[in-house]
Design goal:
2 domains, alpha/beta, Alpha-Beta Plaits, Rossmann fold
Length: 287
């Protein structure tokens, strides 16, 4: 009989008995808990929990149906995920390819639990790189001379997301601001990487700005995409110490490394169902 691996994620108002009810239910369903994490937010009064379980021949539908009673009792927002099902991820990129290359390499060696059916770009620069990993490249250019060009490009992007049944969109240095319509369609399933510890050094030439201020650390922030540019709930951040002698080019090189680290961690945690939205913040049960 096949052993199933499932992840239960839930959030609700904190109260006595949640953990007891959930763990007792899982035991009665014949499921063995292999990992469990929980957090009660004293500020919002919300409780968050992630439980990973294994069981011989566990039927996802039967477990989900049985869980609905507990969900109703505690007014939970909950989901049960079959970890044998690989999410489908679309990567967007423009003219900086370090994060793209890092994600494609991690995917190739099996470090990301996802399928990547395609890479999309508004430029053709990384068509060969994408092809070298055996992944389809889609060039969706934007004609800046045509006021309707961006509207048509985003319509094609949304059509592709639907056609490929995409679960997660990753903006790997995709240097286009998504319209409110696209942001709304991708709510909670689009991750962006920003070159800084938000909100520092926004705009053009961030590493020149950092150099001019004599910073001693530089960082990167991976966050969910929202209508507020670069202000979405933060998932992961990475930092590196820098020397006073480092010029803007050296800062940019170090920055590329931390961008890759922060984005890869955020994507991995999202795919493993470890990230919970908590208002303008996130709760992350990192592995």
């Amino acid at each position: 009989m096949t052993k199933s691996s499932l992840v239960l994620t839930l959030s609700c108002l904190d109260r006595i008995g949640i953990v007891s009810s959930v763990t007792s239910f899982l035991a009665e369903a014949g499921l063995n808990i292999t990992e469990s994490q929980q957090f009660g937010d004293a500020t919002t009064g919300l409780f968050f929990m992630r439980v990973q379980v294994e069981g011989e021949g566990a039927e996802l539908t039967a477990v989900r149906d049985a869980m609905s009673g507990i969900g109703h009792e505690f007014s939970m927002s909950w989901q049960l995920h079959d970890m044998s099902q690989r999410p489908r991820m679309l990567v967007l990129v423009s003219r900086f390819g370090h994060c793209l290359n890092d994600l494609l390499y991690r995917h190739q060696i099996g470090a990301l639990r996802a399928d990547i059916p395609a890479v999309v770009s508004n430029h053709a620069d990384f068509a060969d790189l994408t092809a070298s990993y055996g992944i389809e490249f889609r060039h969706l250019p934007i004609d800046g001379r045509d006021p309707a060009g961006k509207i048509r490009q985003e319509a094609a992007l949304l059509e592709l997301i639907d056609a490929l049944s995409i679960d997660l969109v990753v903006l790997a240095r995709y240097m286009q601001v998504l319209s409110p319509n696209v942001v709304e369609r991708l709510e909670g399933r689009a991750i962006n990487i920003h070159h800084g510890l938000l909100p520092s050094f926004k705009g053009a030439k961030p590493y020149q700005q950092a150099f001019d201020r004599g910073v001693k650390i530089i960082g990167a922030t991976a966050h969910y995409v929202t209508s507020d540019l670069d202000e979405g709930p933060i998932i992961s951040q990475a930092v590196a110490n820098v020397h006073h002698a480092a010029d803007p080019e050296r800062l940019a090189a170090i920055g590329r490394d931390v961008e890759c680290q922060a984005l890869a961690r955020a994507v991995e945690w999202h795919l493993d169902q470890r990230v919970f939205l908590n208002g303008a913040k996130t709760v992350v049960f990192s592995s």
